[in-house]
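Suppose you are handed a protein chain with no further information: no name, no annotation, nothing but its sequence. What can you learn? This example shows the usual starting point.
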Amino acid sequence: MVQRLVVDEGSVDQRLDNFLIKVLKGAPKTLVYRIIRSGEVRVNKGRASADTRLAMGDEVRVPPLRLAEKSDPDAASVPAREFPVIFEDEVMLVINKPAGVAVHGGSGVSFGVIEQLRRARPTARFLELVHRLDKETSGVLVIAKKRSALTTLQDVFRHRQAHKTYSALVGGAWPDRKKVVDVALHKFLTPEGERRVKAVAGDDDEGRRSISLVHVVKRYAGYSLLDVTIKTGRTHQIRVHLSHEGHGIVGDDKYGDFALNKALARGGEGPLPNVDRARLPQGRFERMFLHARYLRLAHPVTGEDVTFEAELPAECNALLGALTPHDAGVAAPK
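A reasonable first move is to predict its three-dimensional structure. Written in structure tokens, the prediction is:
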């Protein structure tokens, strides 16, 4: 039968997908995302998306589901895993997320960072993601250890008071004069159900204004290493903005240069202009070169500014070392 669930204090500001995964014991995550996408789940009688934030007293309508009586059958298969810790205190944990690991399960992914951390820390009473990084993006990721810290930190991100800078390697020579990308973005689903984003005109009804600040850190023959500071936090924002300007991120399998990515991932199977394969592990590069290297925000308890930094991963440094320098470059700002 249809369930009508009312959001209480313990679930305020949770994402809809996380709320349903928690309350629908035994429901596979793929099912949860499917019923949200199909519109069968309603919040206050209206359609909602997986990332809809819930408020006190919201009514969530859930369609009839036939669920196993036991707990989530996938839970036992989630491996316990800790990640490199950048900072930790009693209310928050900041880690250096590796590329290739989703931040949470869902949409075809059985588990992610948060599920693995919960298994690794069974006595932790509360662990929730404050924000997200794409699966193939590495770097600074913040996790709340208390509900009060979660809501405070999410407000910081929502009101654009978190200062985030990413390292990105793109193909071609990024023009020095291009310091701001102010292009609206529209999120959509492909016929196969995959999430995609495209650049649209500023007056497009479905577009959302998105701003990225770009600084050239160093030039290489055929490539540019960039610092990208985002003023808005849209899905795939940096990836689509840079691609829209004609400089896709190296290794980006959705918006990048597919021929280049294939050549880099091929290993020692032929020459690659401006790249010394001998300096790459196994002669190949198989990830996206996008790394959340810097984050500054107000601490949720003290209110003081705190800064977190994550060094470039070894495989990204190896690729930079394999490129042919174009000039001496400039120092990266903070």
